[in-house]
């Protein structure tokens, strides 16, 4: 007859065996999913919501026109031989890493032509390489498409789906209904043109009176690629369905309840400002050739022959203070149209066309909060400057895009 001690001797190995099975199951099946022989990774997500820092700032890095190809085998365009022993897509990657490390942004916005379709046989692989530094940084980032992204192995819907599933991406294929009066399919607005129309809210500083309120909005729009209008080929444009969605978002955003303190009746709380991001400039951008600008106007504005009323819509909405676009790589200026600043990012990628001897560049956008008596309040000022990929990592053309104290 077995004793109690013999029972424990049998039970302990059994308990150890159960523990090993549980550990193995957790480490191999809970944190990873297996489909056939493929391992499916769980998307890494950033800390959300987007919000201002405790020092009252929110910094955005705009990256326009990376034109990433296939990596080290993709050569550079329009660079001086004296500047590089060998130049490839890896120079684009180094520049992005350098910017993230030096500027320490809170958010990265990619404004289209992220890859150059004709220079890659695998769009997904090129996308992962192009956005690699952003994913490695762990920063939240978002992207829209340009006119070259889909010229490889994936269409625009597939590309935006892929981008939305990448680590730390907060991009969306198209907007969630979010209570807006639009037909939806599985919660996503279904009657809107393009892929990559969405908005992101930025909340107040932690511990402030507005910590639980969205105090700045970021609009992302798909400006299309190529189209035929009245029998002629032209660039894409932002459609009326997109503008209708945008108007509804702006109305909802500006109608949200906000604590009026410490504002008085004479100085009510200002409407939260918004920034817009898309790839192809609007036709009115051409007018800036004859106006005062900050930066360089070095090539004609390549836009659609269709004027769909984007500027008129932005003016009527009242919240858009600045627009950030790409497409024309040798333009890096900001100019004002009807009270709204339109800013180019400037050519970023080394496989993109540019101007030999004119360094690749990126735009930085800094929003700053108003300091109340005991707490950070709403957005007071929005500034911008550019960084050059030169020896000095030059910072140029700093300017104020919007100051709430001047708009009352």
TrEMBL record:
**What Gene3D superfamilies does UniProt report for this protein, alphabetically?**
3.60.21.10
Identify the InterPro entries for this entry.
Calcineurin-like_PHP (IPR004843), Metallo-depent_PP-like (IPR029052), PAP14/16/28/29 (IPR011230)
Where is it mainly found? Answer: secreted
Respond yes or no to whether keyword Iron is given for this record. yes
Going by the UniProt record, its keywords in alphabetical order are:
Glycoprotein, Iron, Membrane, Metal-binding, Secreted, Signal, Transmembrane, Transmembrane helix, Zinc
Q: Which residues form a coiled coil?
A: none
Q: Which family does it belong to?
A: Belongs to the metallophosphoesterase superfamily. Purple acid phosphatase family.
Q: What is this protein called?
A: Calcineurin-like phosphoesterase domain-containing protein
